[in-house]
Amino acid sequence: MYSRTSEPVRFERDCPAVLVPQGDSVTLPAGSAGYITQALGGSYTVFVEGNLFRIAGVDADAIGKEVPPPIELPEGADEAEVEKLVWQQLRTCFDPEIPINIVDLGLVYEATVQADGEGGRTVGIRMTLTAPGCGMGDIIVDDVRHRLEIIPTVREADVELVFDPPWNASMMSEAARLQTGMF
Fold first, then answer.
1. Least CB-packed of 88, 124, 139, 181 within 10 Å?
2. What are 34's strand-pairing partners?
3. Which of 67, 66, 70, 107 is nearest to 87 (CA)?
């Protein structure tokens, strides 16, 4: 889901948000007004009082949007089915400044799913950022962890941030390169 908009918005309640690109956590008070600049993967980037903020999907109701439905996994699903859902969830993670998911950006190097022997699973992710000093790095990692840990049976998502090999534009999918004009 991607939309670049300028839809006006008024906060209906106090809402946790993340300042873009610094990554600082803040609370936008009820009554704040601005507009939605991007709606990506169930999250929103909003422009309020000269700054950009990321609003998580779980807080969508604060800006009059629907909170995304819970993730469902068929009963008895095996690791391959969970891994497929892991990749689907990773495609809902975006850097608020770049309108392309982290998989198509080439930021995810590896995703593994392991049964824990007690009916649960652990997901291991090796990923990078477009730049080592990215202020949104911790926020993106936390978003990945959260989106994977809401998958039924996933008890833990271990997200390792690595910078070797360093990211470059050739790691992007063809569609992402076309969308950004980097072909």
1. 181
2. 9
3. 107
d(CA 124, CA 157): 6
Instruction: Write a three-state SS string for 14-43.
Output: CEEEEEECCCCEEEECCCCEEEEEEEECCE
Beta-carbon contacts of 8 under 8 Å, excluding residues fewer than 6 positions away, are 33, 34, 35
What contacts 168, CB < 8 A, 6 or more positions away? Answer: none
Q: Over the stretch 94-113, which tens digit does the pLDDT of each residue have?
A: 877 788 999 999 999 999 99
User: What pLDDT does 180 receive?
Assistant: 81
Find out whether 147 and 102 touch, Cβ atoms under 8 Å.
Answer: no
Region for residue 69 given its phi and psi (left: phi exceeds 0; alpha: psi -120 to 50; beta: otherwise): beta
Q: What is the pTM of this model?
A: 0.79
